[in-house]
Write a structure and sequence with these properties.
Number of helices: 3
Radius of gyration: 28 Å
Helix content: 55-70%
Strand content: under 5%
Order of helices and strands: HHH
Distance between the termini: 73 Å
Structural class: mainly alpha
Shape: rod-shaped
Largest sheet: none
Mean pLDDT: 83
Number of strands: 0
Low-confidence stretches: none
């Protein structure tokens, strides 16, 4: 397929130099570069799903403020001391 693209002059010059050094066409250099860029982007998207395990109840208690570390520590110590 033919298309027209606009490239930065310095980028085009570097691509032409690479094509000449490697004995490939400018089209081949641009295609390979674009494929590599798209493959890296797809690879970054593939992330493993993380499942967090919960214990004893599985949810937050009503009124617990996760931004109040002192209250959380107090709640933990009460929970640990409970029979």
């Amino acid at each position: 397929m033919r298309t027209t693209i606009r490239l930065d002059d310095q980028l085009l010059s570097q691509a032409k130099k690479l094509a000449a050094e490697t004995g490939r066409t400018l089209t081949a250099v641009i295609e390979e570069s674009l494929r590599e860029s798209l493959a890296r982007r797809r690879a970054g998207v593939r992330q493993h799903k993380v499942e967090l395990k919960t214990f004893k109840g599985g949810s937050l208690q009503p009124g617990v403020d996760l931004d109040d570390s002192a209250a959380l520590l107090e709640l933990i110590s009460r929970t640990d001391a409970a029979p």
